[in-house]
Task: structure prediction
Amino acid sequence: FEKIEWSDAILVLNYEKNGISGYIGGNTLVEMGLAFHLRKPIYLLNEIPELGYTEEILAMKPVLIDGDLARITK
Result:
């Protein structure tokens, strides 16, 4: 959590896992929630997955960069 606190933003490397494209697990969701609470920009490397908590992910307004790291801005 301290690393998120010190950071300017977070980048979620949401690769395919368990057959789910753009997978975001529970621990990552908590880290995203902390970044959101601290008003840090949240970047997702890949698309938002269809999960039971997709609405919560959308509410954090992450920036989708579609694998293009050049799309990360400050």
Q: What stands out?
A: The two ends are 21 Å apart (CA to CA). The first helix runs from residue 2 to 6. Helices lie at 2-6, 26-37, 54-59.
